[in-house]
Design a protein that fits this description.
alpha/beta, Rossmann fold, 7-stranded parallel sheet, 8 helices, 17% strand, globular
Length: 306
């Protein structure tokens, strides 16, 4: 049973980012465990992008938050999965609004409504990587100041995750797999010696559910849950593994591109709280890549028949 402050058997989560790739996978798993979800959406136009199971659910609208805030009092836990990566040339104001302003507004509203459990999905990327990482870390720092000892603030920080049906083809893992599968002539890459704890998206979704199920094991104040595979792999190893599974003839041009400015060669993964959630990834690298190859379809479609 998931620990909560509301009545037994009635776990209610207020969730921002339900329309995201990770959010949709989390929703499926949480609902199957009897969790009720109140989606937090920008406006009513966002309802059409919600997972089908939430299409008729009462929602909190950010464009009329003062009017809808009373709905929040039904929840026992707030989870923020909303994020802005800046991949569509968003301004720094837009990055700040989503990655800093939104979680601060939600944790403040949670406190006003007697909710003392707040989960924020962050990043393991170093601040030096760019504005996305800087704003995500700044948001976490301010959340920690607001939380202090007044609530459980759990910062879930997954390393790079990927899976079938991802609509954002700009992310390196899914782009590599799709281009190798399409047998493009060549792919230009950096030397590829960065080591990352690659994860299947379903493992990340399962981990967030495990945080819910074990939330009472966390103390009040800030806790960090770093998520990653058991064994790190270099980007070169990822690309060569995908190429081998697909038997692709695509030429991988390692070293054709420079590393990004400030590119970390390793991931600083804080696993100190992982034992509290009784979680381990189900997919290793080979299994995760194979699952994408078998089930990924065009434009984010997941082929359930394979």
């Amino acid at each position: 049973m998931i620990s909560q402050k509301k009545s037994p058997g009635d776990v209610v989560v207020a969730l921002s980012g339900a329309t995201s790739y990770l959010g949709g996978r989390f929703v499926d798993r949480a609902l199957s465990r009897g969790v009720r979800i109140i989606p937090i959406i920008r406006n009513e136009g966002g309802r059409g992008r919600l997972p089908p199971a939430l299409s008729d659910a009462p929602a909190i609208h950010l464009n009329k938050f003062a009017e809808d805030e009373a709905i929040l009092s039904q929840a026992s836990i707030v989870i923020n999965m909303a994020t802005c990566y800046g991949r569509s040339n968003e301004s720094i104001d837009q990055l700040y609004a989503v990655n800093v302003g939104l979680p601060l507004m939600l944790i403040s509203a949670a406190a006003r409504n007697g909710i003392y459990n707040f989960i924020n999905i962050g990043t393991v990327l170093d601040k030096s990587v760019g504005l996305y990482a800087q704003t995500k870390h700044f948001g976490d720092e301010l959340l920690s100041v607001l939380a202090q000892q007044s609530c459980r603030l759990i910062l879930v920080k997954p390393d790079i995750f990927f899976g079938p049906g991802e609509k954002d083809s700009s992310k390196l893992p899914i782009r590599l797999i799709r281009e190798l599968k399409a047998q493009v002539p060549s792919i230009s890459l950096s030397p590829g010696e960065q080591r990352r704890y690659f994860l299947h998206v379903d493992d990340v979704a399962d981990a967030v559910v495990s945080v819910l199920e074990n939330i009472s094991s966390f103390s009040y104040g800030q806790s960090v849950v770093g998520l990653g595979s058991d064994i790190p792999s270099t980007i070169r190893e990822f690309a060569l593994t995908a190429k081998a599974i697909l038997q692709s003839k695509t030429v991988l041009e390692f070293g054709a591109l420079p590393y990004r400015p400030g590119e970390p060669m390793t991931t600083d993964l804080d696993r100190s709280s992982v034992e509290k959630i009784n979680w381990r990834p189900r997919y290793d690298l080979h299994q995760a890549i194979t699952d994408v190859i078998n089930r990924d379809g065009p434009d984010g479609y997941i082929n359930l028949g394979r």
